[in-house]
Amino acid sequence: MSRQFVTRVDQDVGPTQRAPVRSVRGDSVELRDDIVAVEEPLEIRIARCGETGPGTPVSVTMRTPGHDPELAMGFLHGEGLIRSKGDVACVRERGPDGNVVYVEFAAGVAFTAASLQRNFYATSSCGVCGKASLQAIDVMLHSGPVDSTLRVSAELLTSLAASAHAAQPLFRDTGGLHAATLFDAGGQLIASFEDVGRHNALDKLIGSMLLNDALPLSRCVLHLSGRASFELLQKAAVAGIPVVAAIGAPSSLAIEVAERTGILLVGFLRGDSFNIYAHGERLR
């Protein structure tokens, strides 16, 4: 990822900060500092090639600062506005704290106002809450099929949690972050990203892979630190990820996306046990 392509702003705000707390243990009260996850707004703006001005705002999301260009690229990829790094001329962080990411499309790549007609405010807990209508969600349900030739063993799936947890230092400090962790077909860790928003963590992960020209992720396994929601499965499908394993439960809509797109979906992955919700025939 070249510095010419991605321009970053040195941020004073980090992913964590200290907060004074009163810690109650039975009858005792202790005054001390706690480490908490930072939650700050990020605005994503897009522009046509050569366009001057502030660009067109497409999203405001509450996120943990850090890897914001990756988050923007992953978000735009999941929304179908870009398909590869070649669709983008440059990515720039703007604002005094880098709280605006400006994405300029490459020559020949265009967008229409109709494609942006939705309420793009997304909270840190649920990126799909900003959709303007149920029709937009129905369109997203019809993501194309992934390459479903990858088969994995139960032993590989149950080995992921320890490696994923080791790659989450901010969660160990705060207990308040979600993570999306990517493994190769042999169970080797490729990358892991943390954020207060589970969809932001996955956007950062997919955006990082996109910037490194690694999409589609057809020989990879995605590990989620919490539940498997519709939007996470939709983003995984667009990125070509054929196996998704979550510590928590999937939703009914997430299962539907997995069934339609060919994703092997596993939930309640804890210790040596898990539930298979879609395409269990690919477990060997």
Give a structural overview:
- By secondary structure, the chain is an alpha/beta fold.
- The protein folds into two domains: 101 residues, Ubiquitin-like (UB roll); 129 residues, Cytidine Deaminase, domain 2 (3-Layer(aba) Sandwich), CATH 3.40.140.10.
- Helices cover 25% and strands 31% of the residues.
- It is built from seven helices and 14 strands.
- Strands 1-6-7-4-5-8 form a six-stranded mixed beta sheet, covered by helices on one side. A six-stranded mixed beta sheet has the order 10-9-11-12-13-14, sandwiched between helices.
- The longest helix is centred in the last third of the chain and has 14 residues.
- The chain is flat and about 55 Å long.
Which structural traits does this protein have?
284 residues, alpha/beta, Ubiquitin-like (UB roll), Cytidine Deaminase, domain 2, 2 domains, 6-stranded mixed beta sheet, 7 helices, 14 strands
Q: CATH superfamily of the largest domain, called what?
A: Cytidine Deaminase, domain 2
Biggest sheet strand order reads 1-6-7-4-5-8
The geometry reads as flat
Structural class: alpha/beta
